[in-house]
Amino acid sequence: MKHNEVYLKHTLDEITFLLNTTENLDYTSFFENEIYTRAFSRSFEIIGEAVKNLSTDFRKKHNEIEWKKLAGMWDKIIHTYFNVDYEILWDSIKNNLPGVRLKILSILDHKHF
Prior knowledge:
- With 113 residues, this protein is mainly alpha-helical.
- It has one domain (2-109).
- Helix content is 75%, strand content 4%.
- The protein has helices at residues 2-22, 27-31, 34-52, 56-61, 67-77, 86-95, 97-109, and strands at residues 78-80, 83-84.
- Helix 1 runs antiparallel to helix 3 (34-52) and helix 1 packs antiparallel against helix 7.
- The relative contact order is 0.19.
């Protein structure tokens, strides 16, 4: 389905933004800069929404990615309405998203939508 490709590319764009922006950034610099915290939070929101819009069949076919966890990351980051857990956000960027990015690139390269 064509819409799966569109949402997958949105997800990849946000992951790439997060990884590129944090490449030479440490946690303290990130945490103390409101532009980073707001932008990164927004990227996770976009990722969550894009993943939730992928078809069920697509997510089942590509179960090498934990779609439910990826979509739920936004919910996990926010514990209360206005409180974002930036340590979880940072940890996810540094430890989870690089592998997800590679898997998404593989799906896109092989045109498995």
